[in-house]
Amino acid sequence: MASDLPPSAIKRERPPGVSPISNIAPAKRQTDELHKVQPTPAKFLWATCQDMNESMRLNIKEVAVEQAEENCLQIQHVLESALGKSKKDAISTGSLAIERKMFKQWIEELNNLRDRHHKHEILVGVEGPTGAGKSSFLAALVGLSELFPSGQQGAATAVVGKASWNWDDKPGSEFRAKVTLCDKADIEQSIKNLLKDMKRLSKLKSTLPRDCDDPEEREDEITNTGNRINWELPRIKAVWGLKREELQVVADTCNSDQSYHKTVQWILKKNPQACRFLQDGVIEFNAAKRKELNRKIKPFLDSTAVNHGAGSPFSVWPLIQDVHMYVKSNFLRPGMTVVDLPGCGDATASRGEIAKKFAHRLDVRLVVSPIARATDEKQGQALMQSGFDEAQMKIRGKYDGRGFGVILSMMDQIDVSTYVEGSYELQNDPETSQKLEELKTLQQRKQNGHKKLRNTQAQLKLVERERKEAHENHRMAKESPLPGSEDQSNANRENIEELKTKADNATAAYKRGSDMINTLKSNIEKVCEEMEEIEDWLHNKVTQTRNQYVKDRLQESHAIRQAALNRSDKGSPPLPIFPVSSKAYWRLRQKEPPIQSYTTISSTGLPAVREWLVEATLSKREKHLDDVLGAYQGLMAMMRFYSQEKGIDANFDISRSTVEDALAQTHRDFSIKLGASLSKAALKIQELNPLEDVKRICKASSDEAVRVAAKWSRKYPADDHDTEMMRCNTYTAILSRNGSMYTPKGTGITYNWLEDLGGLLLRSICKEWDDQMNQRLMEIKAPIMEAFKKTWTEYVSQLKQDIRDNLPALEVSFNHFAATADDGLLPSDSNIQKMLDKLSEDASEVTDDVVELYGRELEPVFEAALNIKGNGSYKRRRDCVTNKIRKISVHIARPIVNKLSERLEARKALVPRDLHRIAQEAIDRLKHELSFHLHNLLENYPASEELKKKKIELQKDIRVRVEEWELGWQPQGSKDEKIMGSNLKGPGDTQVIIEDDDSDSDKGEEVVDTPLEAIGDDMENLFRDDEMQDA
Where is composition skewed (Basic and acidic residues) in this entry (predicted)? Predict the structure, then answer.
């Protein structure tokens, strides 16, 4: 209710019939009244929660954004309705035309803001070896099964796949996807280059070595051209189905650019559907169900060949730039966008290249590696321990425990007995040894129990047979004729009694045997339960031991590399490592029997990853929310000023232009002064120079360069213990590529000599870069904002003085407006933060070209090595490269550092321009809000009584919604504490079903079941309790 709001929220409405200037005090009185009554701007919870913890602040701000979206949507409907009703007056002049323009501008700003908020992305990407379980992990993380395809053969994900929250709630569009294809011209150029290479290779092979001036050069060119063909050929074959022989035939016929162009078009026309895809550029899919969407987009994500229309099946992945899905998952709603990258080490090298190029765009990078080989698998290790990548992340401020993590997948796959046998720790653990002994004893008891059960069951069969015989004999004896003599009768009676006793004993023995079988079965079940408990304990123990061992090794390696990066032994954030089991997660989600030891959702490791990701992205999410809320507050202010009721100082004979003219000079002066004060406060930015110590940087990188270059001839240069040599052809291919990235076909190993050296340089500067361009840079925000607030206060005071001096009748109303002017500090604070973040990001991108710069410096070295021919050329080439780098390593780093320094200074030089822009935007925002205020104050009602009445109703409608909006933003008491995006709910604990693992039971004592021919006369003592003692 309006009465619940602070006095400044909304003025009391004056009935239209009452003269707003009746009994008005003179100008002097207005000034006096100003001194007595100062409006107090509303304090919103999201703007005053700085002292709360991060998660609470984030929750408050996310709720505030939702409230703003809902209220703005209602106001938008009201304004659009008003615009529709006044279409006939669209060409009119005066206040109505101004009002229409204001409404349209407000709606446009709202739509742009909403679009900016919905398009905000925090990229969380996974990379790792092919088949490591990346797609399965992401699906479990988001809580949507088969989100990305996880094929059983070949590479499942062949292109970059992304998934974000779907803001579209239209029926049939609950799940959407946008497939972006490559540029058709790029595809045509790739085909043309392939044809040229094939023609050149054919010509080279048709030339005999003795006919060449340089046979060695011929072999090198054959190797290099063949490698390029092998790179591109799978892409062409996947889409157009052309075999190498077919392409070779058409390539040999090309002899001019025109003929190449015709051949390329001929190839493209072989697959009309592929051409249509390229012409469309973007393909969009909508579906009401996720599985329906998955079915539609799967052919665009994976590498399998399928029918796309009436033509032959083909794989479309070589034409795809990326596939972006929009789905419903609470984890994604706060702006998270998960990215599934093609696996490194993929059989098709170009797919692995896609992953590497995209990786540095990620806000959070997760390397997925199967836990069983996480410390040894070379591709995963290359991603986790890449010196170049680590230095780049450090420079970007993402190597702080929040920008990079390791997922140890397939945690459920472990052989307990094998691991225990190979674990020194477990073999020397008393508790584990005790459990193993107990398990061994129980296994023996179980074996003995089964043996006794089988023997007892066999005996019971004989007892049953003899019991039947005894009862039959007794029956026949009773029914036979009585003998004649007394002696015979007595003997017959004794025989009957004896037969009866035997029958009774057999019946009793049978009952005891049946009871014993039940007891044996019960005892065996109890033994099995005890075994299951111990096996479960051992499985947990082994899993935790294995997990901790792998984590410790990775942490140890990480700590060593961190110390090298920081050039200090001081502690650094540990590497976030999360063992997970996607398989166990889905077993529980789908209410299937759980995997042993994974009986709760938390035991699968997925909730821990989600919690870490939420915490890791809190800062970026909060900055975005601050930006959005500041903009929404501006929209609120405009509607508040437009809809507020007139006060006692209304209806002046003053025009808008008069007011604007009175304030124009102050606006101009302070636009310059505000920008200048911000630039002065930001002078410390110009003092930041992480490349200042050129001598140290060059020496540090050059000392390592020779050692690194000496290992370039190894197949696994990153492994100091593996001395296997690289093939000569591979070495030559890298030389011919000027040391740039190369992945030999079939090996899955990627070499990048330039990146090796670039990594050394980056590692020598990353500590200073992080300290200055990430840490100290952000500290400069405080003095910039202090200068902004000081100058802004002077600016607002001068505006008030201008009104007081030139238009005193407006003083009270203007002071009311000026009381809310500090709201403009919030968007400016956000803009300054964005400017600093952008400066940090742009500065880090200065180092992106370090590989290219090294390429220019080392081109003569590689060219000289390639010119070495003849017998023994491989060794002489290796020596040439190593020796030349030894001689020039100190000198090549300096021009590179100088170039980086020039680019950094050029970027810092843009800071004053950026700050002047922020200052001008702040003043423009205030002028824009003042325009709404002036419209309400000076141009409030049209001349027409009917239009006046409609406008009063419109203002009242908007005013009510603004009041509700303000009330929702103010503190309402305790709120539920939650973090949106982390509340994915899984099923509760399910019944644990552990299968009996008796794989070794048949390795013990052999059990021989000896058949019993007869029980004899010991039926009375058969199946007694003493026989159960050993069972």
Answer: 467-478
